[in-house]
Structure formats: structure tokens, C-alpha cells
Design a protein that fits this description.
Strands 1-2 form a two-stranded antiparallel ribbon. With 173 residues, the chain is mostly helical. The chain is built from 6 helices and 2 strands, in the order ααααββαα. The protein has 2 domains: 113 residues, no CATH class; 37 residues, no CATH class.
Length: 173
């Protein structure tokens, strides 16, 4: 019987959580906190926001259980809860950072796909075809393509030239 790919990801997440918890439990003086961070990042990257938030909570609780189970005692009980809260906050910040990175990566992929539709490059010889019939060697393309540039308003005022000033962009709505 073949296990579905999504189920394998959840199984892998559970195995990772169990392994890091066990390692954390038996190694009182060695910090395995970065391993919990990797688990949270993996969950966000592979399984989505809800799963990664659940993994963040699970990692914080497992860390507290391992810390308490390994014999670490705090002078006040609230310190264990405070440390657990700080770890949970850190894990949630990792989820947010990976989410932002994923959005930026997807935007760059869309931009690259758009540019690839405008500019075709042969992977064999490097010839280029730009919205015109025929392929041209890349050296010819770079030599013959016009250099288009604009100046910022400050430079345009300081150095009058033929280049137009770059108009300010409209604010995102």
C-alpha cells in the first residue's frame, strides 16, 4: 500500500518532532532549540500556515515538557511558562519570515515567467529572439540593443541631459 504524499509529509513532521523531543529530553545541557526552529520552517514551507502554527505550538509545548522532564527546575513556575511563551513567539516569527520569503519568491517567479515570454533565449547556443522574427547571437543583441536609462529627479535637475527623469511611482493601493 502506497502512502499519499501529503500523509508522508505529516508523518515526517511527527517523526521529526518526536526525534527532536527525545534528543531534547536526554540532553539536558545541550540546546536543541535550533532544531525546533527548523521543524517549524519545514512545516511552513511544505505544509502551509495552519500546520506550521500548530507545529509552533507543539514545539513550544514539547520544549517545555522536555525541559521539565530532564530535571530543569526554575525558581518560580511562571518562568517555565514565560520561557515557553517566548519560544512560541519565536516560532511564530519564523513562520511569518518564511511566509514573507515565500511570497517574495513567488513574485520573482511570476516576474521571471513574464520576462521569459518577452525574451526567448536558446539554451544551446545562447541566441536571442525578442518579439521579432529571427534569432540573433547574444553578442549582437547586446551590441545593438539601445541602452535605456532614466535619471532620478534630483540627478535630472543637477545634470541636464537627454535622459528623461524617472516619474514618481503611484502608491500601492
Amino acid at each position: 500500500m502506497k502512502v499519499p504524499k501529503s500523509a508522508r509529509k505529516y508523518l515526517w513532521l511527527a517523526v521529526l518532532l518526536g526525534a527532536v523531543f527525545w534528543l531534547d529530553l536526554i540532553s539536558y545541557e545541550v540546546s536543541v532549540g535550533p532544531l525546533y526552529l527548523l521543524i517549524v520552517a519545514y512545516a511552513r514551507w511544505q505544509m502551509g500556515l495552519k500546520t506550521s502554527l500548530f507545529a509552533s505550538m507543539a514545539c513550544a509545548v514539547l520544549w517545555a515538557l522536555a525541559d521539565y522532564g530532564a530535571g530543569h527546575r526554575f525558581s518560580h513556575r511562571w518562568m517555565l511558562l514565560e520561557n515557553t511563551g517566548v519560544r512560541l513567539f519565536t516560532y511564530i516569527m519564523v513562520v511569518a519570515a518564511v511566509s514573507i520569503y515565500q511570497r517574495a519568491l513567488e513574485a520573482h517567479r511570476r516576474r521571471l515567467a513574464m520576462l521569459e515570454r518577452l525574451l526567448s533565449v536558446c539554451p544551446g547556443c545562447g541566441a536571442i529572439c525578442v518579439n521579432q522574427p529571427g534569432w540573433h547571437p547574444s553578442s549582437e543583441f547586446h551590441r545593438d540593443s539601445p541602452r535605456v536609462y532614466t535619471l532620478c529627479p534630483t540627478c535630472a535637475a543637477t545634470h541636464p541631459s537627454d535622459a528623461p527623469a524617472n516619474p514618481p511611482r503611484a502608491a500601492n493601493r
